[in-house]
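Q: What would this chain look like folded?
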Amino acid sequence: MEKDLKIDKSQVVISIRDLKKSFGEVTVLNGVDVDVFKGENLVVLGKSGTGKSVLIKIIVGLLKPDSGEVKVLGKEVEQLNEKELSKLRSKIGFSFQSSALYDSMTVKENLAFPLVRNKRNLTSKEVNEAIEKVLEDIGLPQVINQLPAELSGGQRKRIGIARTLILQPEVMLYDEPTAGLDPITSVEINNLINEVQQQYNTSSIIITHDLTCAKTTGNRIAMLVDGKFLKQGTFKEVFDSDNENVKSFYDYNFIDTV
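A: My prediction, written as structure tokens:
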């Protein structure tokens, strides 16, 4: 079943035009064009090594493109200085594949860190209230005093997402959110991505090669093949195809749990 949410197509949150990136003689992105609309979950789908993660690193300015234009929230990323880039990044939540938690900090300390760093005027009470709220939103209030090593893989993933949500970002970038998780936990993370979209009114790019994740979370799918988006549309529109690249990807990957 395709998701039916209010997406504002008059507001482009991320705009990418003719984006190219090579590493030595290997071309990874070869003319990527896409818009992400306000309130939309766009899934970027592709096999490992096709440039999916490179794409989102360029979006947040961690990598420079060889050519092309990337605009995020109306700002051309390549033209921003460090201060301007830092301000833009504060509006972007980046959920890393590894969850990127500090092992020596409790969950509470992990969540407090970005708040104290980015919003220095908050009182201790306000910080604690924000932590409690975001833990409630992701369904893990009970782990507040635990260390990352004491959490399951799915719990660590949730806390990693919570740490980005605590700054109330306008844009979320998910890098392989279900990688390494068992099927049941993957379903929980997919549901959480949808809940984040609705509760926080985020616009998101979800990088994955997991077709169940794509089908569950994506309002629109963009399939990356040979450095370009081969097809864009709903899950049904993308995979209702005789193209061998599309068919082989579907046949190899898909497990239908919906």
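The CA atoms of residues 239 and 250 lie 7 Å apart.
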